[in-house]
Amino acid sequence: MPLKLFKCDETIPEREKHCYIKAPGEDITEFLPASNVETIPGTLSERGCSFCGSKLVIGGVLKDTIQLIHGPIGCSYDTWHTKRYPSDNGNFQLKYAWSSDLKEKHIVFGGEKQLKKSMIEAFKEFPEIKRMIVYTTCATALIGDDPKAVADDVMEELGDVDIFCSQCAGFAGVSQSKGHHVFNIDWMKEKVGTHEVEITSEYTVNFIGDYNIQGDTYILEDYMKRMGIQIIAHFTGNGTYDSLRSMHQAKLNVTNCARSAGYIANELKKKYGIPRLDVDTWGFDYTAEALRKVGIFFGIEDRAEKVIAEEITKWKPKLDYYKERLTGKKVCIWTGGPRLWHWTKAFEDDLGMQVLAMSSKFGHQEDFEKVISRGREGTYYIDDANELEFFEVLGQIKPDMVLTGPRVGELVKKLHLPYINGHAYHNGPYMGFEGAVNMARDMHNAIYSPLMKLAAIDIREQK
Ligand code: CFM
Averaged in consecutive runs of 10 residues, what is the pLDDT profile of the chain (463 residues)? Predict the structure, then answer.
């Protein structure tokens, strides 16, 4: 039985179902850790809220759209500036935060008037911007405001603007994953098919589930361009509102983050018959495989091979330099979900590292199927690990480095362990061949930096 009850969980034995160790011969048909369920009271959860999944992860990335959050100011502030997804128009989406700034009186008497006022004010402040997403939050969902009715009103009044309403309050699901789902499905229902872009190539794709973290999208765009492929829409890194309305025009959906954006790929397949091709775009082998798959789909394998060969010639010697120094190093990965299965084998095959423990904030069953299939025996796979479990695992594994976000990263630093930001990156981009080298470099620098060892010295004992 591969499930594990940590010592720290003796008082919350329900946690056993969430902690799994891959046993010899384990084939994931009998057991998987429990996932995508409500947090057990008494544990310190890493899960995020559903509004955040919609706003911070998907909609907020769009570079030409006012992101108006209908709720108290905190919902706006806390989803502003915490993710690094740049754009090629001067980072409009990172500079500003918009809110209807709800106060107690609006909670009592209704917030729709305040919302309308804020929407018109925002459009007036940014006269060149004609697109807006309005987000419901817990407060406005509870009082029953109807942002769609307000949006229709504003669209009619202003005439030249388009507004999408993401109605997914923080409490709508067990994690941010619900927000991904709601945004995907509602966008598909309401916006896809309402705009057309000019077609310039016979090979057209939507790049789905890539958020341009520190420039990832630019790397993928370059590969597609060199293969003569037109990207209709990026869902949503460096993407525009109107390109996302044109997703029906693509011949292929290249899906990277299947967790946050697989839904829209499936819907596009159902409604428009556009095939879905899942790829991994982190790591050398995976990137080559991704380009090959796209090349095969369009019958342009030679173009894919050319790009792969050029990139490998350029970047492989650098990767090899780091591989020599990273082989055998032990790693833990503590991120959302998909990066566990995107990264585990890439680190092991490309760099000779050992991934010995992983925790996913909100991965579903299929994420655990993927990561356990790709991972090694004896590795820990935990759903939404709490802090004490984390300490226990670290004590057992003694990793050389941890990949996680700034929140858990602060704990890791206090333990004097090297840490890499696995969400927003240290010095990305991390995707593609170039990105794999950047990532290897950052891991190398973290592990070999003398800083953590020095930080562990208690200077009071020094003479
Ligand atoms: Fe997809 Fe993402 Fe991730 Fe994600 Fe996230 Fe993220 Fe993540 Mo942080 S969309 S699921 S909700 S790959 S923000 S860019 S790194 S937890 S594993």
Answer: 92 96 86 95 92 97 98 93 92 96 96 98 98 98 98 98 98 98 98 98 98 98 98 98 98 98 98 98 98 98 98 98 98 98 98 98 97 96 96 96 93 93 96 98 97 88 70
| Residue 345, ligand 1, Cβ within 6 A | no
- For the chain, what is the largest distance between any 2 Cα atoms, rounded to a whole number of angstroms? 75
- CATH code, residues 204-305: 3.40.50.1980
Strand order in the sheet with 162-166: 98-99, 66-70, 131-136, 162-166
Q: To 10 degrees, what angle do helices 365-374 and 338-351 make?
A: 10
Residue type, 404: T
The Cα-based distances of 321 to 351, 441, 447 in angstroms read 10, 9, 15
Ligand 1 contacts CB of residue 364 (under 6 A):
no
Residue 273 has which token pair? 């018959």
**Atom from ligand 1 closest to the CA of residue 360:** 17
Do 218 and 428 touch, CB atoms closer than 8 A?
Answer: no
Q: How far is CA 136 from CA 37, 129, 145, 180, 410, in A?
A: 23, 21, 9, 14, 31
Instruction: Please confirm whether the linkage preceding 429 is cis (ω < 30° from 0).
Output: yes
Q: How many helices (H) and strands (E) does the chain have?
A: 19, 14
Q: Are 253 and 265 in contact (CB under 8 A)?
A: yes
User: Residue 94 is which amino acid?
Assistant: L
Ligand 1 atom nearest the C-alpha of 211 is 14
1-46+327-424 carries CATH number 3.30.1490.100: no
The CA distance from 160 to 171, in Å, is 33
**pLDDT of the residue at 452:** 87
Domain locations along the chain: 1-46+327-424, 50-173, 204-305
Whether ligand 1 lies within 6 angstroms of the CB of 335 is answered as yes
Instruction: Domain 50-173: give its CATH superfamily.
Output: Nitrogenase molybdenum iron protein domain (3.40.50.1980)
Say what the pLDDT of residue 1 is: 65
Domain 50-173 and domain 204-305, same fold? Reply is yes
The predicted structure's pLDDT at residue 110: 96
| pLDDT for the residue numbered 185 | 98
